[in-house]
Amino acid sequence: MASAQVVKTSVTNNRPSQDSYHPDDLFQSRVGSVKNLLRYLFKQDVTATKGNEFEDYLLKRELLMGIFEKGYEKPSPIQEESIPVALAGKNILARAKNGTGKTAAYLIPLLEKCDSKKSHIQALVLVPTRELALQTSQICKELGKHLGVQVMVTTGGTSLKDDIMRLYTDVHIIIATPGRILDLMRKGVAKVDSCQILVMDEADKLLSMDFKGFLEDIISFFPPSRQILLYSATFPVSVKEFKDKYLEKAYEINLMEELTLKGITQYYVFLEERQKVHCLNTLFSKLQVNQAIIFCNSVQRVELLAKKITDLGYSCYYIHARMEQSHRNKVFHDFRQGETRTLVSSDLFTRGIDIQSVNVVINFDFPKNSETYLHRIGRSGRFGHLGLAINLITEENKFDLFRIEKELKTDIKPFPAVVDKKLYVAEFQQQQEED
C-alpha cells in the first residue's frame, strides 16, 4: 500500500501556474476562508427554507403518508418554491442544484393532480438517461404508493412490445427517455392528447444535440393547454430558446446564486498520467470512503481502470453506455444497495442519479467543460450532506482546471496531507452539529 506521504510530496505541491488570471498568491489567500465559509453554508441548499410544512399545501392524505414514509420531514427550498406554483397550474422554469430535492419538487404536485379513477395518461416526465428514469419512477411509486396511481417507466434498450402491451392497461404517469416515448406516440399507443402535465428534468441535456428535434415533436402531441415544468442546473442557449418559444409566461425559480454545489470540498492532485493509478491507491488508503464514483472520459478507459482497481485488491464495478441495459440496471441496483464501494463510470452517470451514500467523487480524467464538471461532482454531497471532489490533473488538463475554476467562480484546492473528516464523513458531520 502506498503511503500518504507519496501523494503529498510527489504530486500535490507543484501548482500549475497561469499568472494572467490565476496567480498563486490570490489562490492561497482564498484557501483559508473556504473551510469557515463551508461551515456557515452547511446544508443551506436544503435547510434555508421559509418554514413551510407539507401539510400547508393541502395535499391528499394518502400523498402525505407517502411523503412522510419516504422520510421527507419538511420541504426543501426548491420544493417550497415549486410545489404551490405547480399546483396552481402554471408553467415553471426552475434552476436548482442537483441533490436539493428537485425530483420531489415536481413529483409531489404531479401526484396531487393525478386522478387514479381516470384511465388516460395524465403526466409525462422526460429524463435524459435510462438510469435516471428508473430512479425517478421508483421515487414516484414510493411517494404515490397509497394513491393507486399507475406509474410506467419506458426507455430505449428495453422491450418495445412489453411497453406497448403495458399501455393497453391503465397508465397514469409515464417516466421516459425522449426517443422511446416519441416512438410510442408515433405508433399511436402512448396517447397524450388529454395529458395536461409535461415535466422536463435535466432540461439542458434534453435540449442538447443528443435529442435535437425530439422535444418539439413530443410537445406537438400534447394539447395546447398543457403545463410544462422545466428543471435544470444550467441554462445554456438551448434552454433559453425553448423558454422563449414554449414558456413565455413561465414562473421562474432561480436558487443558484452560485453554480457550484455548496458543501462539496474540491481538491486537485497535479501529477503525470502514469502516476494516476498509484495516486488512486494512495487516496483509497488515506480517505474514509463510504462509496465513491470515479469518472473517466471514454468507455475504454472506464473498463481498463476498473480492471486495474480490481487488480489492486479493491471491489469495483463499472458502468457505461455501451453495456447491455439489463447489465447496467444490475450494476446500478447493486451499487445503490452497497454491494461495492467503488464505481467507475463514463458521463452516463452524471445526470441526477441520487445515491446519498456517495461521499467521494474522483475525476480520474478531468472533464473539458464546466457543465460536465458540475454534474460529476454533484454525485457527492447529495441533499445537504457534505462530500469530496478530487481531480487528477496532468499538464494537459491544467488550463481546463483554471478555466472551469474561473467559469464556476469556485475554489479547487491542492490535496492536503490530511483531509478533515468533518468535510465528508457523515458521523463526523453529526458530531460537529452537536458541538
UniProtKB/TrEMBL annotation:
Domain DEAD-box RNA helicase Q: 52-80
Catalysed reactions, semicolon-separated: ATP + H2O = ADP + phosphate + H(+)
Segments of skewed composition (Polar residues): 1-20
Domain Helicase ATP-binding: 83-253
Domain of life: Eukaryota
Database matches in PANTHER family: DEAD-BOX ATP-DEPENDENT RNA HELICASE 50
Location within or outside the cell: Cytoplasm, P-body
E.C. number(s) listed in UniProt: 3.6.4.13
Biological source species: Acropora cervicornis
Domain Helicase C-terminal: 263-423
Xref: Pfam families: DEAD, Helicase_C
Residue numbers spanned by region Disordered: 1-25
Protein name, UniProt field: RNA helicase
Family to which the UniProt record says this protein belongs: Belongs to the DEAD box helicase family. DDX6/DHH1 subfamily.
Ion transport in keyword set: no
Class of this enzyme: hydrolase
Keyword Hydrolase: yes
